[in-house]
Amino acid sequence: MKPPRFDYHDPDTMEEALGLLARHGDGARVLAGGQSLVPMLNFRLARPAHVIDVNRLAGLGVAGPGPDAGLRIGALVRQRTLERSDAIRAHSPLIAQAMPFVGHLQIRSRGTLGGSLAHADPAAELPAVMVALGARFTLRSARGERALAAGDFFVAALTTALAADELLTEIGLPAWPERTGSSLQEVAIRRGDFALGGVAATLTLDAQGRVAGARIACFGVGPCPVRALNAERSLTGGAPTAAAFAEAGRLASAAVDPSDDIHATAAYRKRLAGVLTTRALSASLASIASLAA
Ligand SMILES: Cc1cc2nc3c(=O)[nH]c(=O)nc-3n(C[C@H](O)[C@H](O)[C@H](O)COP(=O)(O)OP(=O)(O)OC[C@H]3O[C@@H](n4cnc5c(N)ncnc54)[C@H](O)[C@@H]3O)c2cc1C
């Protein structure tokens, strides 16, 4: 199908883009990589009167150092750049670990970080990665700028805290703590499909080799990424053993409340959250060991 008619705008400056959003907010959609928006237009699941293409806005497509040894990634940075950039991989390896699971090469070449986050598909990898990393998002509008923690940004399936006149402009990541490993594990019917369920995890050890902290974000098992907080707490201060990871898996499974759909039952997805948590923690530990080697 072809999309319904809309007015196309391609502003050159941020001020112009925010002005268009202020004027047309409710009736407008931002176009980034187009990998979710264009199918939605073609299937007429979205019928905006105005499409605001932000690809000309300078500065949104770059990544660089942030405050306190953090990293800032512009919302328009392509998913393929997240996969290939040595600087991003060196700072936050979980991002590069996740990227091969996101769609296919052609989709990642156009799709952007901000587009994936703003689209907020419950089974998407990047929202869970950002929750696991403790990212902060910068949202701009003609009214001003605000920052939100990733955990507060995702509100429901395909729904975020973005107001109609706001643009997601930047993603800020904290410093990667020493002795930290990470992993993303998922199960999908075919490679490149959206996941039936998945887990993004980080694990930090202290100088004595005990768990200093863990962050576990499950996806595809609820409307938004789910932090498995009890599982995280169960690990802190203990030894990083197989038994501890199995118990964290049991607690992560208990933390999620998935639904049935044509692809999998809720019971299967609940079990998946547990099994993948245990696997993600083991792989995170192995990645710390490989850093030390
Ligand atoms: C066949 C196929 C398979 C896929 N598989 C996966 C997968 O396995 N995992 C996965 O995570 N994704 C998958 N995707 C989706 C892909 O990752 C998209 O690139 C992503 O969801 C949207 O990014 P985009 O830049 O293309 O955004 P667009 O399609 O341009 O926009 C998506 C939505 O976000 C809004 N938006 C975009 N940027 C901003 C911004 N800066 N501020 C405010 N709002 C904004 C748009 O208005 C729109 O509503 C798949 C897509 C396809 C077509």
Descriptive report:
By secondary structure, this protein is an alpha+beta fold. It is 37% helix and 24% strand. The strands form four sheets. The chain has a five-stranded antiparallel β-sheet. Strand 6 and strand 7 form a beta hairpin. The site of flavin-adenine dinucleotide (FAD) has 29 residues, from strand 2, helix 2, helix 7, helix 8 and strand 10. The site of flavin-adenine dinucleotide has 29 residues, from strand 2, helix 2, helix 7, helix 8 and strand 10.
Give a brief rundown of this model.
By secondary structure, this protein is an alpha+beta fold.
Question: What is the topology?
Answer:
Blueprint: E1 7-9, H1 14-24, E2 28-31, H2 37-42, E3 50-53, E4 63-65, E5 71-74, H3 79-84, H4 86-91, H5 93-98, H6 105-110, H7 113-119, H8 125-133, E6 136-141, E7 144-149, H9 150-153, E8 154-156, E9 159-160, E10 167-173, E11 180-187, E12 197-205, E13 211-219, E14 226-227, H10 229-235, H11 242-255, H12 266-292
Parallel strand pairs: 1-3, 2-3
Antiparallel strand pairs: 4-5, 5-10, 6-7, 6-10, 8-9, 11-12, 12-13, 13-14
Helix pairs in contact: 10-11, 11-12
The protein binds flavin-adenine dinucleotide (FAD).
- Number of beta strands: 14
- Read across the widest sheet, the strand sequence of neighbours is 4-5-10-6-7
The general outline is globular
Tell me the span between the first and last alpha carbons. Answer: 54 Å
Radius of gyration: 19 Å
Structural class: alpha+beta
Fraction of residues in helix: 25-40%
Strand content: 15-25%
| Biggest β-sheet description | 5 strands, antiparallel
Mean model confidence by pLDDT: 96
Task: Encode the helix/strand succession as letters.
Answer: EHEHEEEHHHHHHEEHEEEEEEEHHH
Poorly predicted runs of 5 or more residues? none
Please work out how many helical segments DSSP would assign: 12
Bound molecules: flavin-adenine dinucleotide
